[in-house]
Design goal:
Strand content: under 5%
Shape: elongated
Structural class: mainly alpha
Radius of gyration: 19 Å
Helix content: 55-70%
Length: 186
């Protein structure tokens, strides 16, 4: 399998990063959903948020790499069977997914650093607060984080269902291309 994208196929880097981000986004959502109900006396009260924040910062690094990779490795063209509407809808959804991921990460960062403290990433390095102490910022950032993550997972779920629809109903290579098993040749 090729490393870079071609005019008709995704390369292994784009495929691996796509699925890594998908798993991490849904994993972070699940962890976040679970940890908001933890009590102060729960063993995971501090561990859960530390893991959530650390993985979130690492996801930011992966997403920055993904943007740079995409800049130098243009996406394969749309399938000839896709209508203009499908191509425009797919482009719009991808743009919105990227936007929601970055909004979720930025708001999560602002929640965690609103008191001026830094975020420690698995004891490897610290990400300092760039805002210092801003009273009430964690409340606003929390609302943004809550709604952007819900919008993200709902849209990502619809994105996945659309891929399954293309696979099962349209019987085209949309899903196969992102699995690296499409029938088209480069």
């Amino acid at each position: 399998m090729q490393v870079s994208n071609s005019s008709s196929k995704f390369g292994v880097v784009s495929i691996a990063v796509h699925w890594l981000v998908a798993v991490v986004v849904f994993g972070l959502f699940g962890l976040g959903y679970w940890m908001v109900d933890l009590s102060y006396y729960d063993d995971w009260y501090r561990t859960g948020p530390d893991i959530h924040r650390s993985i979130g910062i690492l996801l930011l690094l992966v997403m920055l790499f993904r943007l740079i990779w995409r800049l130098f490795n243009p996406l394969p063209g749309p399938l000839s069977s896709h209508s203009r509407f499908e191509v425009l809808a797919a482009n719009g959804v991808h743009l919105l997914l990227y936007l929601l991921i970055f909004v979720a990460m930025a708001s999560g960062y602002l929640i965690s650093t609103a008191d001026g403290s830094s975020i420690t990433v698995f004891s490897w390095f610290d990400v300092p607060s760039v805002t210092g102490q801003i009273k009430g910022m964690e409340d606003i950032a929390g609302l943004v984080h809550y709604w952007s993550t819900w919008a993200l997972v709902v849209l990502a779920g619809l994105h996945g269902l659309a891929a399954v629809k293309h696979h099962l109903i349209d019987r085209d290579d949309t899903l196969r291309r992102m699995l690296g098993t499409d029938r088209r040749q480069s």
